[in-house]
Amino acid sequence: MNDSYTNPADSAKKDEGSFEDLPLHSKLRRGIQEIGYTTPTPIQRDTIPHAVLGRDIIGTAQTGTGKTAAFLLPVLERLLEEPRGRTHALILTPTRELAIQASDFLRKLAGHTQLRGGAVYGGVGMGDQERALRGGAEIIIATPGRLLDHMSRGYVNFQNLKILVLDEADRMLDMGFLPDVRRILQRLPRVRQTMLFSATMPPEIVALSREFLHDPKMVQVEERTVAAVGVTHLALPISSHLKTDLLAELLRDETMTSVLVFARTKHRADNLVRQLLHRGINAAVIHGNRSQSQRVRALEGFRTGEYRVLVATDIAARGVDVKDVSHVVNFDVPHEPETYIHRVGRTARAQQRGDAYTLVASEEEGDFSRIERLIGMRINRAKLPGFSYDTPRTVLHPAPPSGGQRRYSRRPARYEDRSRRRR
Q1: DSSP type of residue 54
Q2: From residue 244, how far is each of 179, 271, 286, 301 by CA, in Å?
Q3: Does residue 207 sit in helix, strand or coil?
Q4: What is the DSSP secondary structure assignment for residue 241, as one 8-state letter?
Q5: What domains lie within the chain, and their CATH numbers?
């Protein structure tokens, strides 16, 4: 065995350690080191030793815990000695943002190898994607719908495929991709390694695993019902028609430096951004009806600080990879309790801290109670001092001068604890 390797059996037993303890080639370790990673996360530590041996995997871990590297590294490891110019691995992911992020990450990890990746997703032209598929990129990262578009043209060749990864499998089920996934799997070799990764493990995922995987290794490193460590949760009861006013008042707090706001529908997201802009708050929006270029501009502007607020539908709950999101605001309470976990997981990443505020209307109390049961805790309720809860607020903050930046009050938001006054 090459001296670049560590014995997989020994690695699987380690509770702590570095990437040097994992069965990875020195070429991959160089890429890991250049990215700045030093210690594997639990999902990486517990998955990689089994995955590099070709074992089917079901990996469950919360958003932001390193699942992408947990499957990309063993994929790269297994393909190092495979012939070039043939597609050996397919990674299916539910959104174009996730496909782009995984593709960018793959390029960094594979920087010292000759392995190539191609990203296949909607919203852009098909030319470059066709060349990647025809040219035999060794790893294809794709959204199901766009991949089926290419497959219908008859030039996609997966006869050499050895590895299939279903990333964010629970989200693909939520978004109705299961029929598309089944159509794709019918065209893949039956003898292959299949890895399924998910932030939650609903019954549908269990059924899916029985259908597509053979004797999978279960890797569940954290309780699936616990929200990300480091998140401070707060509920703000409010009438539905006052939510926008309350959000604008919250944003007067300068400590809210990078705020991700979740709305339930595309229409509500668009309307909310218009109202925030009218109040002089730098905001952008991202959802499924935005073009790829619009989504890229919004995300990049949010990353660089051009936009202080990014309003999103749940397409972004697992598609926004932005460091240092200070606050997540649930403008609408999600119907599915698991969605709350995905949303708030956008802050407090990489062992940092963050805040999650939820604006709860009376008609949303039932959904919010289910969230509390899921995460196993009562979330404190509060009122924002100085905010009028009795009458609609019609006075808008003035727009900033042309080319200028709005100045925010330096008064931090303070809350009156109502945790003992819950109905």
Answers
A1: T
A2: 38, 10, 18, 22
A3: helix
A4: G
A5: 8-220 (3.40.50.300), 231-417 (3.40.50.300)
> What phi and psi values does residue 18 have, to the nearest 5 degrees?
-120, 180
- How many C-beta atoms surround the C-beta of residue 289 within 10 A? 14
Q: How far apart are the first and last CA of the chain?
A: 65
pTM (2 decimals)? 0.65
Class of residue 81 by CB neighbours under 10 A (exposed 0-12, middle 13-18, buried 19+)? exposed
Using CB atoms within 10 A of its CB, is residue 197 exposed (0-12), middle (13-18) or buried (19+)?
buried
- Please count the residues of the chain: 423
The span from the CA of 251 to the CA of 247, in Å, is 6
Question: pLDDT digit string (tens) for 351-371?
Answer: 467 889 999 999 999 999 999
Q: Give the number of other CB atoms < 10 A from CB of residue 372.
A: 15
The pairing of strands 231-237 and 89-92 is: unpaired
User: In whole angstroms, what is the distance from residue 353 CA to residue 374 CA?
Assistant: 21
Q: Are 41 and 18 in contact (CB under 8 A)?
A: no
As a whole number of angstroms, the distance between CA 152 and CA 145 comes to: 11
d(CA 325, CA 303): 9
130-162 burial, b for 16+ CB within 10 Å, e for fewer?
bebbeebbbbbbbbbebbbebbeeeebebeebb
Q: Which residues of 238-254 are buried (b: 16+ CB within 10 A; e: fewer)?
A: beeebbbbbbbbbbbbe
Residue-wise pLDDT for 212-245, tens only, equals 899 999 998 755 445 556 688 999 999 999 999 9
The helix (run of H) or strand (run of E) holding residue 193 is: strand 193-198
Query: HSE of 1 in the Cβ direction (CA atoms, 13 Å)?
Result: 10
Helix ranges (H only) for 305-407 are 337-344, 365-375
Query: In 111-213, which ranges are continuous DSSP H helix?
Result: 127-134, 144-151, 169-174, 178-185, 203-212
Q: Strands of 50-124 (E only): list them.
A: 57-60, 89-92, 117-120
